[in-house]
Amino acid sequence: MVFSSKRKLVIPKFFLGVQKLDSISCYKYLGLELDNKLNFKECKSCRIKKARKGLVLLSEALRAGLSTKSGESIWNNMIRPIIEFGAEIWGGKEWKEAEKVQVLTGKRLLGVYKCAASDFVRELGWFTMRAHCELKKVSYWCRIIRKSDDTLVKRLYKIRRLESVDRPGSWCWSLKSILESSNLLQTWNTETVGIGPGWMSAVKAYMMKRECTLWRQRMEQKPKLDLYRGIKVTLSREQYIDFGPRWRWRTLAMLRSGSSDLRIETGRWEGLSRMQICRFCLSGELNLLNISFLSVPDL
Question: Which of 103, 269, 283, 295 is most deeply packed, by most CB within 10 A?
């Protein structure tokens, strides 16, 4: 296989003795599907296909009575690692297919409609898939920094840092952008990383602040989440999700997500105003739902 970023690649002929060697465009090595352009499209496609198969089994288990907490455990420990496999190498870019899989999983765990806003799955306190992949990339970089200077991977890293740190699309450029967006550019410049899980927890906290800011900005652009913005303040897991079987709190989740059978939602399908006249008494406006009712702190 010949690696090149050229659109029209002229592949030379290779021989082993008198036998001509076949040229291929994709090869699986150490569990990763490598293509001749190194864009990892085939690798990501295979990860999504495998994750969707696991999602089908998870959905069947939920219909059979599996608890939401157990479903989350299956997602975090069995399905999501399939998607993130190899993210240390190719992570750091927007990946819409992976985000769709996580959003679909979150909606099924919460029991809300498919038409619910995608940002409502943050009710579970989840990062985006991009943030998860970026965190794995930063963790891998920390392991490289801690290695001895005479190891092959450390020597290769130092060479590539000098050559490609300012080249868009390169591994070092992507890593620098991740740290800069998380206010950790000084760490990139000095290469001073801590030891143990405590340092990675600090990195995760920085990313949490960034994720929360981006999440709030996305919700501002969705009128369907007008009510939810007043209820959900922090990017954390809500306590009511653990309150017994799903059927007990599913209605509350649907009301909070803005996707319910109430007139305040169905009227939006007809293009009606959020402030409507009550169709039963015709005496006053149908205002937004009482926020205090939907933001019960203690169940």
Answer: 103
